[in-house]
């Protein structure tokens, strides 16, 4: 079933697959991609669970405002709650990759009665806060003119104006890591080029540090990281799992998006977690 949820004039495209008693919501990640990144997980999980996916504002079939304030984390959390309400989902296991992991955590802390479990894949959550990552450094200089270059020099507003395709291709390669296939890379690049540098820049400008009150998170959690994640350092995931009292699963050789490159393994971990006693 496909439909549209709406909040404050912003339309959000969603999809529901399967009719199991338990609901899993696969959250959108950063707006350089869309809900199709979860295609393999939907196929693997919907035979056993009710699976909800949706496009974040600024991506896919959802509306794409240009005001950076529209992409503040609190707005993305509110969008998630709107999707839950619209799809008749009282509570769910939230699965989030990257930015989606942060939004899932924020939702669990703010609306604990709606979240029965968290499965976080390479979440953009730094509870260590000592040495800035390459991503954090790039975000800090996002609006500053930089010399043309490869690598993280491409994560920059001015670089996107010069060569947006080059950024998308680099970012997809970096996120998938060395085990990404040509087909997976092509799909990732197509999703990135479906957006515009103007919309994507608005989503970066709004990404100020968002404190997560981990003590307010009461549900069980699972944290997964590829040990070759070049976007969110693997030590972030280990530290977060420790703070949450959660199980941590390291995936040797995997990058930032094992739900894409290791779909079967990741789906099995999510299904096992969602089926554990104590989750609805």
Automatic annotation (TrEMBL):
Q: Which domain of life is it from?
A: Bacteria
Keyword Hydrolase (UniProt): yes
GO molecular function, a single term: hydrolase activity
Give a yes or no for keyword Cell division in this entry.
no
Which UniProt keywords are given for this protein, alphabetically ordered?
Hydrolase
Annotated Gene Ontology cellular components are: membrane
By its UniProt entry, which InterPro entries does this protein fall under? AB_hydrolase_1, AB_hydrolase_fold, AB_hydrolase_sf
Which parts of the sequence belong to the AB hydrolase-1 domain?
A: 24-262
* UniProt-recorded name of the protein: 3-oxoadipate enol-lactonase/pimeloyl-[acyl-carrier protein] methyl ester esterase
Q: Which organism is it from?
A: Actinoplanes italicus
